[in-house]
Design a protein that fits this description.
Strand content: 15-25%
CATH architecture: Alpha-Beta Barrel
CATH superfamily: Aldolase class I
CATH class: Alpha Beta
Order of helices and strands: EEEHEEEHEHEHEHEEEEEHEHEHH
Helix content: 25-40%
Strand order of the largest sheet: 3-4-7-8-9-10-15-16
Largest sheet: 8 strands, parallel, barrel
Number of domains: 1
Structural class: alpha/beta
CATH topology: TIM Barrel
Bound molecules: flavin mononucleotide
């Protein structure tokens, strides 16, 4: 088996697979189950400084190409979450698996407060979910939508904790590279890209939106090309490590994420759909693929998509019928 171990923001992982945030809550038993099933790291559900009820049902739908969800960040608040994180850490540390806490807030001060509270549980990393509305911006704009607001939230977290932080970006922005550069300059130790992409499903019979919240976030296979493009652009823009997340469900998907520059690979919807056995299947497939092609390490694969094709070779894609170069 090739060496699949990686290092992200100073934390060594046995393999690059990371349980994405929100998939299995912060229940210590479930995080332990993902760790025992082969994840290199597990991310807890996002918590906010105070408790949140979340949206009414229906909050999620499997529409055949992944999920559409609008949970509304239900969580018991950072204090209670910190207790669960401490218990999760006690269970998974002996397995050599890293714990990533996840925080969000609607003010810059809230990010600092949540970071300081979850730090008491000593997670290896803190993921800063900035895909939530910034109250100060006044019109529901996410922190992730503006390089300045994203940088402000990052700086607040960096001042509040010494635990390395990963800032989680949204694909719903005009220039994700600009946001990545801003958070890197503000001290982010790494980036998670991406969160879900806003979308909507409607029932033709009733004409009504299917989710109670009307719109929700697209995840799973439909998100993969968007995520690959975002990770590609982020990795071209900054030198800090990236957890590439969005639509990964096979070993080949994971290797594609690493080809566009990701250091680690988040897996969310595929775990929700297929259970924790997916981690071992992805790792097996990655190992088999690498052996068959003579790759001994992920370093040889990382960033291949950024290397320009040899001069004179226009494309290795089959010609598009009817299309002629200008
Ligand atoms: C049901 C559900 C709940 C989620 N909850 C969170 C969350 O609490 N915090 C967060 O940062 N991302 C959350 N996400 C986004 C995932 O962590 C991930 O970024 C996204 O689903 C794309 O990865 P995937 O295609 O592998 O699912 C959630 C996704 C789903 C499907």
């Amino acid at each position: 088996m090739p060496d699949l171990s990686i290092e992200i923001a100073g934390v060594r992982l046995a393999n690059p697979l990371v349980l994405a945030s929100g998939i299995w809550g912060t229940t210590p038993e479930l995080l332990e189950r993902a760790a025992r099933a082969g994840a290199g790291a597990v991310t807890a559900k996002t918590c906010t400084p105070g408790p949140r009820r979340g949206h009414r049902n229906p909050t999620a739908l499997d529409w055949g190409h992944g999920l559409l969800n609008a949970m509304g960040l239900p969580n018991p608040g950072a204090e209670e979450e910190a207790g669960m994180l401490a218990e999760a850490r006690r269970r998974i540390s002996p397995l050599g698996v890293a714990l990533i806490a996840s925080i969000a807030a609607d003010t810059v001060e809230g990010f600092a407060e949540a970071a300081s509270i979850v730090s008491r549980a000593r997670p290896e990393l803190i993921e800063v979910n900035i895909s939530c509305p910034n109250v100060a911006a006044g019109h529901g704009e996410m922190f992730a939508a503006s390089p300045d607001a994203a940088a402000e939230a990052t700086r607040a977290v960096k001042r509040a904790t010494s635990i390395p932080c990963l800032v989680k970006l949204s694909p719903q922005v005009a220039d994700i590279a600009a946001v990545a550069r801003a958070v890197a300059a503000a001290g982010a130790d790494g980036i998670t890209a991406v969160n879900t992409l806003p979308g909507m499903l409607v029932d033709a019979e009733t004409g009504l939106p299917i989710l109670a919240n009307r719109t929700g976030g697209i995840s799973g296979p439909a998100l993969k090309p968007v995520a690959l493009r975002c990770v590609y652009e982020v990795c071209a823009a900054v030198g800090i490590p990236v957890i590439g997340t969005g639509g990964v469900g096979t070993g080949v998907d994971a290797l594609e994420m690493i080809s566009v520059g990701a250091t680690a690979v988040g897996v969310g919807t595929a775990v929700a759909a297929g259970g924790e056995g997916i981690f071992a299947r992805i790792l097996d497939e990655m190992g088999g693929w690498m052996i068959a092609r003579g790759f001994g390490s992920l370093a040889a694969i990382r960033g291949r998509a950024h290397r320009a094709p040899p001069v004179g070779r226009e494309s290795n894609l089959p010609p598009v019928p009817g299309w002629r170069p200008a």
